[in-house]
Amino acid sequence: MVKILTENWIFGKSLNLQDYLKVGGYKALKKVFKKMKPIEVVAEMKKSNLQGRGGAGFPIGLKWEAVASQKARPKYFICNLDESEPGNFKDRSLAENNPHQILEGIIIGAYAVGVSKAFLYINGIFKEAGQKIEQALEDCYQNDLLGKGILGSKFNLDLEIFYGAGAYICGEESALINSLEGKRGEPQIKPPYPSECGLFGKPTIVNNAETLSSVAWIIENGGKKFAEIGKLDSPGTKLFSIDGAVNNSGLYELPMDKTVEQLIETAGGVKAGFELRFAQIGGSSGRIVPKSLLTEIPSYSREAEIPVGSGSVLVVSAHEDLKKILLSWINFFQRESCGKCVPCREGTFRLKGILERLDNGDFNQEDRQDLYKLIWTLDNTTFCPLGKFSVVGLKDVIRYKMLKELV
Ligand SMILES: Cc1cc2nc3c(=O)[nH]c(=O)nc-3n(C[C@H](O)[C@H](O)[C@H](O)COP(=O)(O)O)c2cc1C
Ligand code: SF4
Q: What pLDDT shows up at residue 316?
């Protein structure tokens, strides 16, 4: 099975620059400088149809094209390594195991869109990943892979690491940009999108660390080859963080054509003595997959019944108390609500109160009416997607009639 992201991982050892060069690292960058104009790099990414692995699945080629065509100067390039969605550990693992693969993606991307200043925004609690990225960055500067005239070309790039404070909302690109600018980590109104008006009001790319980790492979092997892996509407391989009631929790790289059932089987299947209640795909903001939908393929296609999002798979057994799960989701979103808009700040707080009463047996008729109103409010009126995210799981619990009090 083809591996793009984890092919060169050595168990228990992080690839340093020498290791990375030995397995063909920075060959794609050399190829780009020798043989490709920036516009050709963008065209190759478009051919690959690589969709952003941060959750939304926006095609990287279109994003790069939009920024490459902007006249304003300077432009910026940001790698998003915030990863605060519960259940996800893919970006952190990429940084810990093969930091240069991410950096090579950033350098190629910066060349393609005409950027000479890039940032890597990393969640401040990722100590080991931060150390590995810092070491990789230093090695790049010392070996002519960053700075002025990279590898003898006319291309200059400075790359700076920025440690976030660990707020979930700072993974959202416009809040991340605010945070980088030294402001409160709150989302900004869109449009304009960062590709037009991003960091310091200039055209900016924000790409996820996993997305960028596929770039060098695409340049070396061609966008067409990447597009042939997995499914036509959602190509390539993907990292799946699989956890919960499975035998072998862990990180798995798989082509994007696997059903939920196959993903669970890859992690050794449901633990003996446990019965599957549902799987949740894409973190606490992810859709619920009941047994009847296990043959669905999570993907980035707009028609997908189950969006793949950031790619985590939480396997929940019938042993688990569903009311406690609902509470843990709302606790997370209420705590992480940035407070900028009333529907989310107040709505998550009130919903938490109702779900606490549901849990301790005091749920009444008034709560029931308020619950539906709050779900609608959070789903339809919040400033950014976090409000909507906070009720995705709850809506599915109601849709699939999983709790008798909510039927
Ligand atoms: C509440 C919220 C949290 C997010 N957290 C992350 C995150 O931790 N990492 C990430 O790459 N994208 C995150 N995103 C998506 C980013 O806004 C953005 O779409 C992404 O970084 C773009 O990169 P991509 O196109 O390579 O996926 C989040 C979005 C929202 C609404
Ligand atoms: S929806 Fe929540 S996280 Fe988003 S702006 Fe409003 S308060 Fe902040």
A: 97
Helix (H/G/I), strand (E/B), else coil: 276: strand
CATH topology of domain 322-406: de novo design (two linked rop proteins) (1.20.1440)
The ligand 2 site (C-beta within 6 Å) comprises 169, 187, 337-341, 344-345, 382-384, 386-387
Taking only the tens place, the pLDDT of each residue in 33-66 is 999 999 999 999 999 999 999 999 999 999 999 9
The residue ranges of every structural domain in the chain are 17-227, 231-317, 322-406
Q: Locate the ligand 2 atom nearest the alpha carbon of residue 345 and give its number.
A: 7
Class of domain 17-227: alpha beta
- Antiparallel, parallel or unpaired: β 250-255 and 237-244: antiparallel
pTM of the model: 0.97
Residue type, 222: G
Angle CA 204–208–210, to nearest 5: 145
Ligand 1 close to Cβ of residue 122 (< 6 A): no
Q: How far apart are CA 9 and CA 389, in angstroms?
A: 33
- Please say whether the structural domain 231-317 has been given the CATH code 3.10.20.600: yes
